[in-house]
């Protein structure tokens, strides 16, 4: 995704910023799962990047809108690991006798 296509709305800019700063990652096996890495510095950098992307395009979104969108996307992301992968590992674990 180019930076120009991510300024259509705050959700796109935030998603792009979170992914490119590595604050979040998409599970390589489950494309519908976003994982929160847990790096506070990357999350702060993502906010600044999203703000700069939007400012650079001339679009103005209120800072509170960006903060709320980052909070929403980070809240929706799985913490640290893909829950679908974890569930598969539990089902495939060998049972001890």
Strand content: 5-15%
Order of helices and strands: HEEHHEH
Q: Treating each run of at least 4 consecutive H or I residues as one helix, how many helices?
A: 4
What value does the Rg take, in angstroms?
16 Å
Low-pLDDT ranges? none
| Total of domains | 1
**Class inferred from helices and paired strands:** mainly alpha
CATH architecture: Orthogonal Bundle
Write the layout of secondary structure elements.
Blueprint: H1 10-20, E1 24-26, E2 34-36, H2 40-56, H3 63-76, E3 78-79, H4 83-92
Parallel strand pairs: 2-3
Antiparallel strand pairs: 1-2
Features:
97 residues; mainly alpha; Arc Repressor Mutant, subunit A; 3-stranded mixed sheet; 4 helices; 8% strand; elongated
Provide an overview of this structure:
With 97 residues, the chain is mostly helical. 54% of the residues lie in helices and 8% in strands. The chain has four helices and three strands; from the N terminus they run H-E-E-H-H-E-H. The model has no long low-confidence stretch (mean pLDDT 87).
